Amino acid sequence: MCGTLDYLPPEMIEQRTYSEMVDLWCLGVLCYELLVGNPPFESSSYHETYKRILKVDLKFPPAIPLGAQDLISKLLRYQPSERLPLAQVLQHPWVQAHSRRLGPPPSPSAP
Q: What pTM did the predictor assign?
């Protein structure tokens, strides 16, 4: 196994068959880490980190907005089939409220 331990989803730790749904798990870990400053399941040992991932032992600091907590909680699900699909991530109210769609630059006006 290679990669960053903190991003491993339960199905990889348990050596089950996995699919692209692992990317949704990683997106949840990344969102948490960007907002909090450290991974959601970080522990003092590999063994404890594995246990926290398998239990989806997720705790949010009080400063994390409820909308972000909702999004991350919907991505960090033990069952891959229960993870929020990417199209729905883009439509999530917290993402919508904090996104700006940037279009192509305006064309120069003709002389």
A: 0.86
